[in-house]
Each structure stands twice: as C-alpha cells, then as structure tokens.
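Journal club prep, notes for RB
We'll compare a predicted complex against what the paper describes. Inputs for the fe (ii) ion case:
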Amino acid sequence: MVKIAPSILSANFAKLGDEIIDVDKGGADYIHVDVMDGNFVPNITIGPLIVEAIKPITSLPLDVHLMIDNPDLYIPVFANAGASIITVHQEATVHLHRTIQLIKSNGVKAGVALNPGTPVEMIKDVLGEIDLVLIMTVNPGFGGQSFIPFTIDKIKQIAEWRDQYGFNFEIEVDGGVNTTTAKSCAQAGADVLVAGSAVYNQNDREQAILQIRQAVEK
Ligand SMILES: O=C(CO)[C@H](O)[C@H](O)COP(=O)(O)O
Ligand SMILES: [Fe+2]
C-alpha cells in the first residue's frame, strides 16, 4: 500500500504540534518536513529547532527534505535533531556520494531529490547507496503548486532501474499530489506520496488521507 507523507509546510504553524498529531492519528505514514534556506529555493521555512521540537510529538518517521545549499554543513545538526530520513537535492551538492555517506554515517536514512528539470541519469550511479529517491513533481519552494505531468516518466525510469538492478530504495513524489494526480504517480512506481495542501487545506485530515489512498486504489 502506498505511504502518505503529509507536508507540514501547509499546516497552521501557530498550532504545529496539534497539526502533526492530527495527521498522525489520521493515518499518515511519515511527517514530511520542508527545510528551505532562501538560497537554493526562494523561500525560507523551518530549521533544526523545529525538528527537535516536533520529534517527541509523534512516533512517525520525520522525513526531512533539505532544500538548502551546502547540505553537508547541516546534516549532523538535522540528524541530532531527530530526522529519520534526510533527503538532499542532487543540484545542491557537488560531491553527492560524499554527502550520502555523511547522512548514513549520522545514523539516518539517505534520500536524494531531483528537481523537475534534472534528468534521472544524474543519480543513476548512486542508486545502490540510497534509501529514498524523491522525484519533485513541482519546482521546489512553495506548497500548493500544480503537478508537472512530464515528471511521471522520471518516476517510471527510476522504478525500472530499481527492478532491473535489484535496488531497494523507496520512490517518493513531492508536489501537487492530490486525489487527481496520486494514482498516476503510484502506477508509475511511487511508494510514498507527499501531500501538503491536499491534506492540510481540508478540515478533516483523516478523510483527506483516506481519499488519496482511495484515489490510488480506484
Ligand atoms: O517540497 C515541497 C515544496 O518545495 C513540498 O513538500 C510540496 O510542495 C508539498 O506541497 P503540496 O502538496 O501543496 O504541493
Ligand atoms: Fe518537500
């Protein structure tokens, strides 16, 4: 069954603890935490202090999506703060293999994200080293954007390589995932669907998560 990772980017930050408990009780599989630095992407969001603060609130894995330049500087900090998975962007690091090893040496699962405009070939050589591939289905920086259809082919290609070479990373998709787009992502091979506005913009988060699952199964 597909996993759902609500992105707290679309939560009400004035009551973040309650917002996390809401999706935890509502059937979420991961809590997706979008970290933006105002350089790699044109937005600034949250840092390690928030990760540390929310860690005791939920037993769900904290899926930390770093949209920051020089991620190596902050990987140990986010690991200590309680991240379960740390995903870095291929575009944000020159020495991707070294960055992946740094994440793993901090006892955290390692993910690599790709912007819509970055070919999947850019990460082919490290696929055997990682726990998660994150295919961005919008340009990173903001919640509530529209899904970019051509990214489906990228999910398919990554899934094909996983089968062909016997890798066991998860494939996560992030951006514009809702009841209309979820099924084609899952059919293409996605295991984890990040959903920010599709979950948090609804009053009943349990129902929102269920509706995405049902859209996949239909
Ligand atoms: O990484 C992200 C943006 O850069 C977010 O995780 C993503 O946008 C989720 O929001 P939505 O589901 O509303 O598109
Ligand atoms: Fe994200």
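Talking point for the session: The pocket of ribulose-5-phosphate (ligand 1) is lined by residues 7, 9-10, 32, 34, 65, 67, 138, 140-145, 174-177, 194-198 (CB under 6 Å).
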